[in-house]
Every structure is written in structure tokens, then in C-alpha cells.
Amino acid sequence: MKVCFLINQIHEGGAERVVCSLSNYLINNGIDVHLITTLKFTDEYKLDDSVKRYVLSPFLNTKNRLSKNILIKKLIRQYCLNNQIDCICSFMAESNFRAISSCKRITTKTIISIRNDPAHEYQSFLYKILSKRLFPKADAIVFQTDDAKNSFNSKISKLGTIIENPINEAFLTQKIGKGLKRKDFVTSGRLAEQKNHSVLIEAFSLISKKTDANLYIYGDGPLRENLKKKINDLSLNNRVFLMGQCCKLEEELQKYKTFVLSSNYEGMPNSLMEAMALGLDCISTDCPCGGPRFLFDNNKYGRLCIVNDKEKLANLMLLSANENESQDKIDARIRRANEFSIDRIGRKWIGLLNSIVKPEI
Description:
Elements: E1 2-7, H1 14-27, E2 32-37, E3 52-55, H2 65-82, E4 87-91, H3 93-102, E5 109-113, H4 118-121, H5 125-134, E6 140-143, H6 146-150, H7 154-157, E7 160-162, H8 169-172, E8 182-188, H9 197-207, E9 215-218, H10 224-233, E10 240-244, H11 249-252, E11 256-261, H12 270-277, E12 281-285, H13 291-296, E13 303-305, H14 310-322, H15 327-338, H16 342-356
Parallel strand pairs: 1-2, 1-4, 2-3, 4-5, 5-6, 6-7, 8-9, 8-11, 9-10, 11-12, 12-13
Helix pairs in contact: 1-16, 2-3, 3-5, 9-14, 12-15
């Protein structure tokens, strides 16, 4: 079987890491894997040397957006034909549209993957029209949660199957120290509006005089200066720390007691899954499209609060700071996270591919 993943880049981002993890898993399970990206960077997620890479940017000699999109689809189509690709698996909105458009009237099957909350990823008028028109033509659609699947009409949702994110293996293979954690709060993620670090800082300010715990924020992004100003305005410069990017987050995070996800919306949040894998106490907003709620399974593995409710978030953070958790609870979260190992998730993808790509008789 020849499978080709399609995504804009593998430089950063949760979906991008998943594409690389799946590519590496499938190639090691006897599948011929190809990867098409629009861009290539020097600092990218690790890809097995056996994965055949095709980068489109050297061939895109026009700045006109419409012309460029037509050319991209032509290049994808030609690559699939030349390499006899059995199935193309696309990730993220633009790639999903391009995959379906490129593979019309050729034998290559299409599996598209919805990686974020559809209400946000497909909220523009153009994307709503394109999704209604193109998605029913896919051979299968991968959703991460039932909420995401049910947000589309029946023509689209009936093509859907639920496959969760695989956790980065680096977080599952860590030797977790017992009794060594600081009683501090931590989060990780891009400093962008979606992650709503602002409400997390405001929530922490409400309890900063009631606990010795500090707040550490890992990641970078366009809102860094805004968040620095908020920290300063709330006189929290010695309590809230913007830590920037960290290349060994699996080692750094386990120093802390409580992970807090304050997002406005998510798909299946990698950062929350990774924190669970390290045994951290976890708090999250109950954000669409239901990823944290699914991971916590009726609050068995973490605590949920309403999106943008700083008072409730503050109360949950204080509760965590003052609680001495049993090792049983910590171990339960680690076991829950192991349900999403690359082997388990990879087998689900292989099952889907086998159901779509029928062997010739």
C-alpha cells in the first residue's frame, strides 16, 4: 500500500507532529509512506529517512493566491498519479480541500482529518461553502471527538470515524520521579488567542496571596508582549514566568504539580495528554470540541471548568495546590494517557486504510 500524507508544513504544531508520528509508524509497519508539504524548514519534527518527501514551494513561482492554489492542486494530482498513491491523508483545512479537489477522477482515495474545533477551523463563509461541497466526496473523514463529528451534517458525519491523537512517545517513556514535584502550576502552548493564557493569569492573580505556588508558561507566540504587560499590571512579575520554547518539555514538565489548560477551543489537546502521561494533576476548560471532557472521562482523570470563567478556574487551582494526591490517582492518569500510544492509534489508522484501499482481486 502507498499512502501519502498532505499538510502545509511539519515545522511546529500538534497536527504536524501527529503526521510525522504516523508516517514513522506506518513506514515501520510495511507501508510505503510519502509526505507532501508546501514548505520546508531547517527545524522540523523528525521523519524516518524512508519516508519519501515532496516539497511544493520550489515550484510555486506565482504570488497570485488563486493561481498558486490551482498549481498546488495540479502538483499534488500529478504526484499521486506518478507514484501510484493508493490513499492521500490530509491534515488541516487547506490541505483537506486540496486533497479532495486534486484526487477527483483518479483512483487515489482520500481520507481527510479534522484536527481542531470545526466551529473555529471552518467558521469563514468560504470554508463553510467548501466543506459542504467537498467533504461528502471524501472516502473517509477522521474526527477526534464525537462533538466534532456531530457538528457537520449527516452527509459528512456518516463518513466519519473517531481516531484520537497519539501521544508523543517521549512523554510515555519517561521515568516519573515520585514525591519530587514542586507545588507549582504549569502550562504549555502557543501564546495565541485560542489558548487564552490571559484568563489563566487572571485566575492565578485571584489566588496568588493564598498559595506559595507560582505559574510557569512554556511556549511562544504573537501575544507574548501582551501577556508580559498583563503580568506586570497585576504585579505578578515574581510569580508568573513566561519560559519560552523548551525542546525537552517531557523532562521539564514533571517538575511541576498541576497542569492547567485554559483554551477557548481545542481538538484533542496534545499538551494536556502529555501532562497526563507525566502524572500531573490536570485542570482544563471544558472547551469545544470536547477533547478535555473525553480525556478526563467524567472527571476521573482531571477537573473541568467553564471556558473563560476565571473565578471557577482559580478555585480549582487552589484546590489542587492544597491537595495531597495519592499515588493511585497519579498512576491512573498515566495509564489513561497510555491508551493513546502511537501503537494503539497507529493500528486504528491501519485498520481505516485497509477498509478504504481494497486489494485488487
